Amino acid sequence: MSLTERLTNAVASALGAAGLPPAADCAWEVPRQAEHGDYATNAALTLARAAQRPPRQIAEAIVRHFPAMPEVDRLEIAGPGFVNVFLAPGWVAQALGGILAAGERHGRGDELAAQRVRLEFVSANPTGPLVIVNARAAAIGDSLARLLRARGARVATEFYVNDAGTQFEALARSFEARVRQAVGESVALPEKGYPGEYLIDLAGEYVQEHKLEGPPALSAHLATLETEGGVSTLPRATERLGRWAVARMVEGQRRVLAAYGVTFDVWTSEQHDVRDKGLADRMLAELTARGLAYEQDGALWFRSTEVGEEAADDKDRVLRRRSGEATYFGVDVAYHHWVKFADADRLINLLGPDHHGYVARIRAAMQALGHPPEAFEVLLVQLVTLLRDGQPVRMSKRRGEFVLMEELLEEVGRDAARFTFLTRRHDSPLEFDLAVATRQSSDNPVYYVQYAHARIHSIARQAAEQGLASPAGGAVDLTALSDPQEQALIKRLLHFPEIVRGAARALEPHRIAFWLQELAGAFHPYYKTHRVIQDDHRLMLARLALCAAVGRVIANGLDLLGVAAPETM
RNA sequence: GCGCCCGUAGCUCAGUUGGAUAGAGCGUUGGCCUCCGAAGCCAAAGGCCAGAGGUUCGAUUCCUCUCGGGCGCACCA
Predict the structure, then answer these.
(1) A80 has which bridge partners?
(2) A39, A283, A339, A537 - which has most CB atoms within 10 Å?
(3) Do residues A274 and A335 make contact, with C-beta atoms less than 8 angstroms apart?
(4) What are the angstrom distances between the C-alpha of A447 and each of A57, A415, A430, A438, A451?
């Protein structure tokens, strides 16, 4: 049972003893001001109305009947009726032992143990290399997975490859044109094609790998491709070329993500895992049978406006075009219901802001199919405005101008890039100045946190070299840690599990990043003013234990962000 | 026109399901290495939390409106 849970029980017990009704919710917070104690509750304030008593009177009753606890040194009533709790220094010092014993598990919990989560992020179209905003989504998504797992959830991370439909066809046609150009044919890029240089490079690779020397060789090659099967409305050879390009593109994306430290449990192909299995047609039939879809003007429409009180869309949406082909939406409903919900009871999708108009209809469809509204969550990751020396850089795959995620990794580095993305809320637009990030890389807050970790390991190394390593477990007298800064550090470490729990519940990994900066910000000054390695052996061992715990928690926190915790820098 | 997100220090951003005196980094100014790592520490300056109402014991936080910025509103994905 956590400390705040024990405190809550104590309040309940006190209220009972005082003959007062139980507090509906007894929330504990850590006051900003140290003078206000280590924990404070507003229970008396929230209870005042129901109990028809002044809050301070209730607070007095709570304090008077509060059961004795080894954790608590004293209580105080403050302001309009807060009950402030001051922890007992002896108990705090001993609590450090619990943190050290928990080690890697300090911060973990099991309140999400019942959840099977399907977490989709990045899911960039296979029509070009990954760009900066993908790096942001990757950092957030990967950290979310780590957070949810830390609190017990079973998480499957997923990258959904949109390798079908209009965009795929545009890519296939563009790629074919580039291949033809590569062997010397004079053909123009299709009108809605992708002009990016990456397709030129890729076409060059294709020609080289297939040893296509000149237009005749290409024609013969394309003729052989025509004989093989295809599923889109494209000429078969064009589609085959497109498939090859997509496979290469996805492989490139996968490789960059891996270099970033992000791997996915599931790579879903729209073509193979949804369309080829006929899931879309099955879904459209099912929706029609359930009366959730209707025909009009030759198209099949979903009753978005009539489904789900909160999820209601503002207009009905097309599931199947007059041409007979399912829309992206139609496919997506089938995919969400039969693929994603097949082995998960909670879906979390990270999408770009351009998708936000799309969320309502998918949510409506999921509710109509019987999934509770809270089982489908969408996090809109806002755009990254990339600056170079203060000047905005346009990022458009279609115009072929962008800064690649790969380049970001080279210029800024994996840890600094991830940490920077994770020190912003996902829903606030982000300005990322490459020049500044590169020039000031040593001022990046990530190094501040990592430096504290490296410093701690340096101390431990020196202690070990001097034969001062701490004795086998339990022999350290932690009560030596009575200094206010030491007490404050331990209390901070004790907060960590609650911070992780809150970040996982709110799906906000940035809370971890900020908290780590605060922890490092408490450790560095402590280090400056307190000698760890020193003559007082008892105090030294206790301080070594404190440092070890701080290092351990920093490492645990950085791990939740997917950032390394180096022992030397 | 309708909908969503955002507006907090010069800049980039936090602000714990509404809590007590709104914080950090960068930048600026001034100090600190014969002593466990100066990627560090100490100090100063910097705010009408866009604005106006409302709910509340209490509002940066919730509601309404106004202003300002971004993004969506396809038988595209």
Answers:
(1) none
(2) A283
(3) yes
(4) 49, 9, 20, 13, 6
Write out which nucleotides of chain B lie closer than 7 A to a protein Cβ: 2-7, 12-17, 19-27, 36-37, 39-42, 57-58, 69-77
Give the residue nearest to nucleotide B3 (CA to C1'): A357
* Nearest nucleotide to A31, CA against C1' atoms: B20
Q: Coil, strand or helix: which one is A391?
A: strand
Give burial (CB, 10 Å; 0-12/13-18/19+) of A141.
buried
Which pLDDT does position A228 carry in this prediction?
Answer: 58
Dmax (CA) for chain A in angstroms is: 95
At which residue do the structure tokens 């050879």 appear? A237
Structure tokens at A226: 């025509």
Please state, in angstroms and rounded to a whole number, the distance separating the CA atoms of residues A343 and A190. Answer: 41
Q: Give the separation between CA A416 and CA A414, rounded to whole angstroms.
A: 6
Tell me, in Å, how far CA of A503 is from C1' of B55? Answer: 29
Cβ of residue A447 lies below 7 Å from strand B: yes
What is the Cα–Cα distance from A548 to A476, expressed in whole angstroms?
A: 13
Q: What was the ipTM of the complex prediction?
A: 0.94
Q: Distance, angstroms, CA A82 to C1' B61?
A: 19
Label residue A240 by pLDDT band (50, 70, 90): very high
> Scanning the structure block, which residue is given the tokens 């296939």?
A172
> Which residue type is seen at A563?
V
Half-sphere exposure of A38 (CA within 13 A, CB side): 25
Q: Are strands A82-87 and A72-78 parallel, antiparallel or unpaired?
A: antiparallel
Over residues A257-276, mean pLDDT? 95
Of the candidates A143, A215, A219, the one whose C-alpha atom is nearest the C-alpha of residue A181 is A215
